[in-house]
Amino acid sequence: MKKLINTPGSVVEDALRGFAAAHPELRVDAEQRVVSRPQPSAGAVGLVSGGGSGHEPLHVGYVGPGMLTAAAPGDVYTAPVPDQVLAASAVADSGAGVVHIVKNYTGDVLNFRLAAELAEEQGIQTEMVLVDDDIAVEDSTATAGRRGTGAALVVEKLLGAAAEEGTDLQTLATLGRRVNERSASFGIALLAGTVPAVGRPGFDLGPTEVELGVGIHGEPGRERGRLTPARELITTALEAIDAEQRIEGDVLVLFNGAGATPLIELYGGFAEASAWIQTRGATLARCLVGNYVTSLDQAGFSITVTTLDDELTRLWDAPVQTPALRWGR
Amino acid sequence: MKKLINTPGSVVEDALRGFAAAHPELRVDAEQRVVSRPQPSAGAVGLVSGGGSGHEPLHVGYVGPGMLTAAAPGDVYTAPVPDQVLAASAVADSGAGVVHIVKNYTGDVLNFRLAAELAEEQGIQTEMVLVDDDIAVEDSTATAGRRGTGAALVVEKLLGAAAEEGTDLQTLATLGRRVNERSASFGIALLAGTVPAVGRPGFDLGPTEVELGVGIHGEPGRERGRLTPARELITTALEAIDAEQRIEGDVLVLFNGAGATPLIELYGGFAEASAWIQTRGATLARCLVGNYVTSLDQAGFSITVTTLDDELTRLWDAPVQTPALRWGR
C-alpha cells in the first residue's frame, strides 16, 4: 500500500484537520466530527448528509451556501454514528426541521434512523431522503435494495438551492425523492482502491479486466468485463442506465472519477458519453466532469444521469459556494 | 496499462472533444488545438499558456474570465507547436499584446520563442514570462535551469486578475516574473504515471520507495527516499523549499495532487503542511488543495509556496471563472 498518510488509523482525523485548515469559512468540529456552515440562512430547513469517508469531496466538500448545512463523515467506508448525525442535525436545525440525505447502505440507514429518533426527542423534526440511484445491482453485500452513489451530489445540490428559497421540510423531502427517482448511475472499475486499515486492494482485477457495475466501496457489480476502448465501456454504462430509466429529454450528466482517474481520461470518456447521448436524441443540458464522488484510490468512472425539468434545471443553476462545487454569486 | 482511453494516439483529441462538450462557454478549436474565451475583455492584454497535455486541468481548465485568454495543449508531455501557439496568440490579442506564460522546458521555450517571432511579423506584441519554480533540481533531463511546475497556476491566476484591470503588457510581464521569483515548488512521487503511447510507467519505484523532487513528467528528482509517514515527506518538501526561499510572512500554498492521489490523502497531507507553516511562524494566508497540476496517473503530491504581498493577495482574491478555478462573481 503506497499512500500519503501518517497511519491507517489517523486518516479521517488527519483529513479533517487539513480540511479545517484549508476551509476556515466552514466550522469543523473535530471531536464530534461534524462539518457545518457557520451561518445557515435564517429559518431555512437544514440539510444534513454523511456516510463513510473515502468518497471525498462527498460529503464534507459540499457543505456551504446553496448545498449542505452540515455533514457527518464516518470512518473510512463506515457509517457515521447516531450521536454524530444527531450533533450535525442539531447544528443544522434553525427550527424548520432537517432533511437527512442518506445513501442506501444498511449501516447508514440504521444510524440515520436512530439519529432521527434522538433528534425527535430534542424537538428536531427530520425527514429522510434515501438515495438509491445505482442501477447495477438490486440488493448487494451492503444494502437491501439499490446502492446510493453519484445522485447524492445531485440531491444535495438541488435541495440546497430549494432550501435557500425557504422551501418547507415536507416539500423538500418530496423534491429529494423525486430527484432520486429521476436519477440512475452505473460505475466501472479499472483498478481497486485500498482501504488504509486493510492495506491491500479491496478486490482483484486482472490486467485486462474491469468490474462492470462496481459499487463505491468496491462492491461487486454485475460481472467482470474486458478492458475495451473507452467508447465501449461508456456505451455499456449508458445502455445499462437507459434500460432502467430511458435517457431522453434534458439530462444532467455527472461523469465522475473514482478517485485515481486523471482528468485527461475523464474528459476523454465524457466525449463518448456526450456523443452517445446526442445520438440517442437526448439533450445534454448540464454536466459535471471530475472526481466528485470517489472511492479512495479506485481507478475508473461512474455515470449518473438525472432527467431534468424546468424546476430542477433552475435549482441546478442556482448559486452554490462550497469547497468542491461553486458557481454563481 | 489500464486507462480509460480509446487508443493511445487519440488521447488528447478525445479529451479536447470531451472538454468542448463539457464547457460550451469556451471556444475549442479542435483543428488548431486552441481553447479560448469567446469574449475577452476589450482592450485587455491577452494571456496565453500551453504545454504538453497530461497536466490537466493545467492549462485548458484555466481559460476564462480572470485567468487565461487562450491555451495551446500539445501532445502528451510534448510542447505545443509554434503555429498552434501563434493561433492562440492571434485569438488572444485585442491589440494590447499577449503575455506567453511558459513553463521552463527546452521544447516549450523554443516553440513559444518561434511563435513570438511569427506573432511579431503579424503585428502582435508578445512578452514571455518563464516559470521555473521547481527547486528540486538545477538543470534536468528536459530543461536548462529549473523546471516549471505548480507556479504556472499561480502566475496565470494573478496575471489574469491584473489583465482584467487593464494592466499593460510590460507591467504584466514584470508582475509575472515577480510572482515566479516569489514561488518555489517541490514534488514527491509515490507511483509513476504512464504515458499512453509508451504503455508502461515512466520510472520504477519499489514498494517502499518514493522519488524526492520528482518533475511533472516523472523526471528524476534529487534521490530515492523511503515511503515514510506523510508528516515526514511533507517536512522534507517544505524544508527543501525553505532552504531555497525562506517561508515567512503571508504565504499562498498550493497543495497539489499528481493526478491519481485522492482528495482524502491530499487533505491529510495538507494538515501537516499547514501545521509546519504555523510552527515556522509564517501565515497560511491562502491555499488550494486538490489535483490542479497533474502528471497523468502519477501518485504523489507537490507543494508550491508563493510569498504574498498586498497586491498579490488582492489579485488572488479577484473573481475567476474557469472550468477548474472559480470564485467571486
Written as H for each helix and E for each strand, in order along the chain, the element string of chain A is HEEEEHEHEHHEEEHEHEEHEE
What do the pLDDT scores of chain A average to?
97
Q: Which architecture name of the largest domain in chain A does CATH use?
A: 3-Layer(aba) Sandwich
What percentage of residues of chain A falls in helices of 4 or more residues? 25-40%
Gyration radius of chain A, in Å: 19 Å
H/I helix tally of chain A: 8
Q: What oligomeric state best describes the polypeptide chains here?
A: homodimer
CATH topology name of the largest domain in chain A, in short, is Rossmann fold
Low-pLDDT residue intervals, each spanning 5 or more residues of chain A: none
Q: If strands are numbered along the chain, what order do they take across the biggest sheet of chain A?
A: 1-2-4-3-5-6
Largest interface: A-B, 63 and 63 residues
CATH superfamily of the largest domain in chain A: Dihydroxyacetone kinase, domain 1
Number of strands of chain A: 14
